[in-house]
Amino acid sequence: MKARPPIIIIGMSRSGTSMLTRMLEALGLFVGQKKTKSHEAVFFQQLNKWLLGQCSGGLEDPASIRYLLEDKEAKALYGEFIRYIMKTPRVVSFLGWMKYLRYLTPANLDIPWGWKDPRNTITLPAWLDIFPEAKVIHIYRHGMDVVNSLRVRRERDLSRLKERHAWLKPFYWYYLMLKFIPTQRKFFYLRCVSLEECFSMWEEYVHEARTHVRNLQDRAIEVKYEDLLTEPNRVLKDLTDFCKLQATDIDVERVAQQVKRERAYAYRSNPELEAFSIQMADRLRTQGY
User: Fold this and answer.
1) Of all residues in the chain, what percent carry a pLDDT higher than 90?
2) 7 DSSP β-pair partners
3) Up-side HSE of residue 104: CA atoms within 13 Å toward CB?
């Protein structure tokens, strides 16, 4: 059978990318053998981190990718290097041994496949050089709910470094050293210390993603997180058609039952965020809210 281009899922962190990816996987989209808790394929996540690291950037600084994208020679060489990596046994973490022995590289897959990573929003132009026929799904969520989710996660992650029982702290910090230093993993988003910075980062991601969607035209589709929660059957049916998945209406109905409708516009129960949303009304309106 003919090889199929990937489905690349983009969107700001905390915008529903994980939920959407789990649903698409349940409907027949192969998204990798080894995945993180956030349902990101470890193989492609590591490549995205590496690409951003070459630009001294990361999730909090999407604009830094321009240093790579504007350097045509470097961009072409990086793409060639990634194509090589995708043909090495390292790709087993994505394909699994059975698919690796059959296909050798993701580029040969003849089944619906793809991967999710918020970093795709930033690195997409590099991936489109490698997979010029790729399709893209962009999921976006109300900025206030994204801000709230980022702040909750920041407080949770920040607690790792806070005071613990004196006898326990050295052992716990040693564990953190082994887990975070070798992998250069971050404790939390430093940029999200303020509501304004969180909101600005959301705007940057939505703007970047929508630029990709406009450029790709019929090879891209946008999903509003709130529509997925309130009309899951319709949205999932559109996505199965877009991804060319062999899912039945019964399959769609089964997966749609996973939706938790109360997550839509959850920020309204928070007086601080409700007040901030009024201040940001014009900017929210620009993004469709």
Assistant:
1) 67
2) 114, 135
3) 5
Name the nearest CA neighbour of 244 among 135, 141, 92, 154. Answer: 135
Please report which residue ranges of 104-167 form alpha helices under DSSP H: 120-130, 143-158
* Residue 256, token pair as written in the block: 């749609």
**Distance between CA 152 and CA 235 in Å, rounded?**
28
Treating both helix axes as pointing N-terminal to C-terminal, what angle do 195-216 and 143-158 enclose, rounded to 10 degrees?
A: 130
Strand partners, 139: 223
Residue 35 CA to residue 18 CA, distance in Å, equals 11
Query: Selecting from 2.50.20, 3.30.70, 3.40.50, 2.40.50, what CATH number does the domain 7-148+189-286 have?
Result: 3.40.50
CA angle 57, 58, 61 (to 5 degrees): 70
Q: Cα(96)–Cα(109) distance, rounded to whole angstroms?
A: 12
Split at pLDDT 50, 70, 90, the class of 15 is very high
How far does the chain reach from its first CA to its final CA, in angstroms? 43
Torsion of CA 31, 32, 34, 39, to 10 degrees: -10
Nearest CA-CA partner of 13 in 122, 115, 135, 119: 119
Give the pLDDT band of residue 151 (cuts 50, 70, 90).
Answer: confident
SS3 224: strand
Q: pLDDT tens for residues 246-283?
A: 999 999 999 999 888 888 888 999 999 999 999 999 99
